[in-house]
Automatic annotation (TrEMBL):
Name by which UniProt lists this protein: DUF3159 domain-containing protein
UniProt keyword annotation of Membrane present: yes
Domain of life: Bacteria
A Pfam family assignment: DUF3159
InterPro entries per the UniProt record, alphabetical: UCP010219
Length: 210
């Protein structure tokens, strides 16, 4: 096994910083909501302001503007939903729906033999879709994609239960706890599966045998 496999899988996270940054606006919403006496407007403004600041900092540090604009837009959408419904817990509704959709898409990709783990690693390593002609890599990516389905399902279950209970503070805490720590655990499990499943004589993720 070569280090390029671990390197490729680690690249899927886009750096731990991006995942950490994603948890900051929800925490800002909860903090603003609490300090203002449960004002959704203040919480929403805090979240959007935090999202904008994080986005600007990431762009200055070399982040992709398009990806950061999408992140800020999602924060704005979440704030808009909470303001419209008048329920602070609804700030997290967009995140719940996105995780549910992600779980379905990842599961479907495995079934149709286009596992998203392979798609992402192929794009990251520059091999594009050559891995689909390698039966060993196809099998590896299909198996190693299931932990990603699992992480999205876990978030839906946890966030959904807290949302139904109206636990705004716990939603903010668990949003942070199940962001980058869960992604790190997920990628570690995927990497373990890759090492256990790929034949010992295979040249590695960057070198499909076609």
């Amino acid at each position: 096994m070569t280090d390029t496999r671990q390197e490729s899988l680690a690249s899927l996270l886009g750096g731990r910083g991006g995942a950490v940054d994603a948890s900051l606006p929800p925490l800002a919403f909860v903090l603003g909501w609490l300090l203002s006496g449960n004002s959704i407007a203040v919480g929403a403004a805090s979240a959007v302001a935090c999202g904008v600041v994080v986005g600007v900092v990431r762009v200055v540090r070399g982040g992709r503007p398009r990806a950061l604009l999408v992140s800020v837009a999602l924060v704005v959408l979440a704030a808009y939903v909470a303001i419209q419904t008048g329920r602070a817990e609804d700030f997290f509704l967009v995140q719940i729906l996105l995780n549910a959709a992600s779980a379905l898409v990842w599961a479907a990709s495995i079934v149709v033999r286009w596992p998203l783990l392979g798609v992402v690693v192929g794009l990251v390593t520059g091999q594009k879709f050559a891995w689909r002609r390698d039966p060993d890599l196809m099998r590896v990516y299909r198996i190693a994609s299931w932990p990603w389905v699992g992480q999205y399902v876990l978030r839906v279950v946890v966030f959904g239960a807290l949302w139904l209970a109206g636990e705004v503070v716990l939603l903010g805490i668990m949003r942070a706890a199940l962001t980058w720590p869960l992604q790190v655990a997920c990628i570690a499990v995927s990497w373990w599966i890759v090492r256990r499943t790929l034949p010992a004589d295979h040249p590695g993720l960057r070198h499909p045998r076609v």
